[in-house]
Amino acid sequence: MDPPPAAHRDPAMDPPPPAALMDELVEEVLIRVPPDDPASLVRAALVCKRWCRLIAGASFRRRFRELHPRPPMLGYLYRRPEDTDFVPTSSFRPPHAVRDGWRVLDARHGRVLVLDWAAQYKTMDVVLVVWDPVSDEQRRLPALRTATLFSSWNAALLCAAAGCDHLDCRRGPFLVVVVATGLSSPAKASTHVYSSDQGAWSEPINVSHVSHRYDFIMMAHRALVGNSLYFNYKLNTKILEYDLGTREPSVINLPSAFHGWHIVLMESEDGVLGFATVQESKLSLWAREAGLGGYAGWAQRRVIELDKLLPVSDCSRSLSPYVDPIACPPYVVSGQEDRTVHFQLQGCSLHELLHSSTESGLDG
């Protein structure tokens, strides 16, 4: 026996479909995705074209950065003898995790400044590349002839947008500043500035300085504090300051107790020049402070007992004063633009120890 025919359903009686959420409400939800899990945003962008358009928009990026002002650590760049690897610490994976023939010099606001070793080996010129690891965009700068860089040099990457809050400027204009010293007669320090707006290097500015056999700028971490760049200088016995406004260099003495030690220049928590170093099992943080008569000196701000914080069995091991900042155990110190101090341990694990005096509670 056939079943009775289904009752005819009048489409007019169906409830209306729910109204689509306004873009503003969708955005309010999406900007609350944890910033250290970028894969979740990618999955959300694949839901539909509308969501993809919202997430890709400049307004969303700015609101996301405003809600999460402290950028998450997506990974770190590990420098090998002949290449650079991106080691992820989150769900983010760059299009190219290994860069053959590249050496990282500086990173700021989402862009990375690298030296193309392979190109330099072929031409004997210095070839710099500004790289965006997220989009894999690259901008290869005009080569600087090695002869013009004298005997030692270092470089820094800066945002060139006036009044920028650096929430979303990785696609904006930038500057690359190269500071070099030499042993010519008379001895000179020189600066070269590349402008992305001009697409060219400026004419070098040369300043005479007293020649010494150890007048070398160290190829180490540099610091931007206020309107000045700072570089390790003279085998880590001094600091070379370069004023971005006057384009004049000057020299700052380091405390004699740290001459030759591996130090990392950084901005202190109150916005002045500082440095970090390791002594035995202690992280020592110093800062430049003004004294009587306008004289500036160094003051120790904090001492952190590492053996109480780090999961290593050999924290009592002394760190050589001439330690290689990349390869040698047990620790690697790195100062970041948000004044974070990190330690890299054997086994490539990464631990954040300090990002502000109020949040860390690590006063020694």
UniProtKB/TrEMBL annotation:
Residues 103-309 form the F-box protein AT5G49610-like beta-propeller domain. It holds the Pfam family Beta-prop_AT5G49610-like. Residues 37-63 form the F-box domain. InterPro entries: AT5G49610-like_b-prop, F-box-like_dom_sf, F-box_dom. This is F-box domain-containing protein. The lineage of its organism: Eukaryota, Viridiplantae, Streptophyta, Embryophyta, Tracheophyta.
